[in-house]
Design goal:
This protein is mainly alpha-helical. It starts with a helix and ends with a helix.
Length: 85
């Protein structure tokens, strides 16, 4: 899967496990809901580290915990798509 899709899936996974809506996450992260929605809708194809950091704050986790998912294992990321985008 493309890297951005792995980010989308991880955000949704964490929202479910934390019983948070997208708006709830955005509020906790101190960002507009449209920013989170643009990542999930893949309009933002390369969210910056600061954006991911704020999302992590919203979940109350570190960036290390965010990326500590099999979704980000090398064999799960489509490197062809990463290099073309």
């Amino acid at each position: 899967m493309p890297f951005i899709k792995a980010v989308d899936c991880r955000i949704l996974e964490l929202c479910r496990s934390n019983h948070l809506s997208i708006n709830g996450l955005a509020n906790k992260a101190g960002m507009p809901p449209s920013t989170v929605a643009s990542i999930l809708n893949e309009k933002s194809r390369n969210p910056g580290e600061l954006t991911i950091f704020k999302i992590c704050i919203g979940f109350g986790i570190s960036m290390e915990q965010f990326y500590a998912s099999k979704l980000f294992d090398v064999e799960n990321i489509d490197l062809e798509k990463v290099h073309k985008d």
